[in-house]
Predict the structure.
Amino acid sequence: MALVSFDLDGVLQRNPFHAGRPDGVFGHIQRELTPYLDGEPEIAFKEALRLILAEHRARMQAGRYVDAYDWDDMTRLVAERFGYPGRLDVPALVRHYVKEPGMVWLYPGAAECLQALQDQGHTLVTITNGYQVYQEPILVQLGIRKFFTAMVTPEMVGTMKPMPAMFQAAESLGNPRIHVGDTLPHDIAGPHRAGWMSIYVVQPGAGGYAELPPQARDLAPWERPAVCTDWLRERLEHDRVLNDNPPVTFEECIPNAIVTGLGEVPPTVAYLVR
Ligand SMILES: [Mg+2]
C-alpha cells in the first residue's frame, strides 16, 4: 500500500481567502484597512491587498519561506504601518468565513476520491504551504479531515514546498510515495526531488485551468506526459509567475501522470504502485 499526499488549494478544495472577491477573508481585511489608506476607497481597497501580497513576495525573495505564508503576521504588519487601531486575527477570520455559505467548497469527486484511496488501503496525508491553522478548519468544514493521517505544513517543517524536507517529513508513513498537486514547481518538482512519484491535476473550475492538448485527452493519465511536452512548458511558464522561488528546471516538472478530474486519481495511483 502506498503513501498518497495531497496538495489542498486547487486540488481538493477552494479556500476562503478569495483574492479579488469582496466577500472572503482578504475582502474582510481590505474593508477594515481601507479607511486608513490614502486615496479613493476603491483604490485603497485594492492597495491593502497589494501591500500584503508584496510583503509575501518580499519574504519569498529573501528566502524567508515559512514567514512568507504567515498571513496573520503579514496582515498585522501592513495594518500597523497605516495606524489601524484594531487587531486583525486571520485564523479567526478563516474559522468564521469557512462557515459562510459559498465561501469554501470541494472540487467534484474529492470525497469519493479520498474514500476510494482509503478503501484501497493507502495512507493519506496533506502536504500544503498553508499553515495548519488556516487549512485544518477548511478540511473539517468540508468533511474530509477524517481521511488524513497527518498534515504537513511549513511552520511544522521549517521550510516550504518544493523543498524535499516537506515530503521527507511524511516518509515514515508509507512507501511507495505519490504526491498529487496542481502547481508544477511545488507539487511535481518538489516530490521528484525527494524521490517520490507525482500526479498533476488540471481540473475545470480550479484556478489556472487549461485544457489538455487534443492528442492527450483519450490517453490514460500516465501516458499523457509523453505527448504534453510543449503544453507542460507553457504550464510551467504560467506557474513561474507566482512560484519561481527557488527555481526549478523543466525536467523536474514532468509528472508521472496528468489527471483532468479527481475521479482519475484512484486508478492512476493503482497503476503507479502496481
Ligand atoms: Mg495547489
About this structure: Strands lie at 3-6, 13-14, 105-106, 123-127, 150-152, 177-181, 197-201, 257-259. The chain has a mean pLDDT of 97.
